[in-house]
Amino acid sequence: MIFREVEDRDLIAKARRGHVEAYNVLVSRWEKRVFNYLLRLVGQREDALDLSQDVFLKAYQNLKKLDDPAKFPGWLFRIAHNEAYSLLRKNRPEGEMVVEPKMAEASGGLFPIESTLAVRSALARLSDDHREAVLLKVYQGFKFEEMAEILSCPVSTVKSRLYTALDLLKQTLGPVNTGGAE
Amino acid sequence: MSCELDLTGYVVDELAKRERGVVEDHVRGCQSCREELDRLNLTRSALASLEDEEIPRRIAFVSDRVFEPRWWQTMWHSGPVMGFASAALLAAAILAHAFVVHPMAVDTAQVEKRIESQLNARVQAAVNEAQARQSAEFAKVLDATEHRFETQRQADLANFLQADEYRQKQMARLEVASNEASGQ
Q: Structure pTM?
């Protein structure tokens, strides 16, 4: 991870000097992570792909504004967050529709594919803010401080969103997994 | 759960080493916290079972011409090209130096003759090329015309044969009718 950070920093420095190939390498390194984050956030594959495209284009155009290349991951995900929320707001102008997760509908053991579907469904039932907190923490491994920068909100808000989200997910996924383990 | 411990912080790896130790010590002796921690760990494991999808297609930025480097940028960043360019520049400099130091006597008549012969050769080549192109086009038009005529001829012949056959049938019919009329 340390080597990777060093290499990313080197690539960013080269890309800033107009070395397009260096930026292309950077894109190929991060595109899968950004795409999956956006896919789980907006829910539509085509939208996620279009947004990924926009994210990397904006990142390239603003690369010189990045003060510290070591903060590239958070900076990139901040762009992704902004792009995703622009789309979500456009699609849902009247306000966020929060759907509370139901309690586990199946109490028996689940096959892996069912487990995947259950996770996907449970995530989809969270509000955008709660889901995003889980995505950034569980799937992208950001620290609370980094998440606060990405989301432009206090650490306490980030923490509250994540704890609520995990509590809701625990109600949906916890009993199922416990049942499956038995 | 009545104990004031940050079990979620423990599961998402946001606690300092000392706080982690406190949680670990506590759950050894507290069954309800241990069960809560198990539920949180199971939830986290379930979430982790969702694998990343492959991106359906590469980000198009890579092939976007707008962002391609200009030719001089490509050259500037290419070691072999820069090396070749340097060598070529050096060779040109040596050549120029040789000409400057030992200027050659220029035979104007010979140069003019050479230019004229080269010019003639190029003109002749251009004429030959134009003629060949014209011949090819003419042959193509001729072929097409012949083909059209042949098709027309075949159609006329077919019409003629059909008309002739019809005429023969009519004649036969007339003959039969005539014979029948004669018989009556």
A: 0.60
**Residue A106, φ and ψ in degrees, nearest 5:** -115, 125
| CB-based contact A153:A51 (threshold 8 Å) | no
Classify A96-182 by CATH class: mainly alpha
Identify the CATH number of the domain defined by range A1-95: 1.10.1740.10
8 A C-beta contact, residue A35 and residue A52: yes
Q: Do A138 and B48 touch (CB under 8 A)?
A: yes
**Of the partner residues A31, A35, A173, the one whose CB lies closest to the CB of residue B46:** A173
Name the closest residue on chain A to residue B70, using Cα atoms: A18
Sorted by where each begins, the domain ranges of chain A are: 1-95, 96-182
Q: Which is more confidently placed, A118 or B184?
A: A118
Give B143-184 pLDDT, tens digit per residue. 998 999 999 999 999 999 998 888 888 888 888 888 888 776
CA-based diameter of chain A, in Å? 58
Using CA atoms, how far apart are residues A149 and A82, in angstroms rounded to an integer?
Answer: 12
Of B43, B52, B69, nearest to A170 by CB-CB distance is B43
Structure tokens at A78: 């901040």
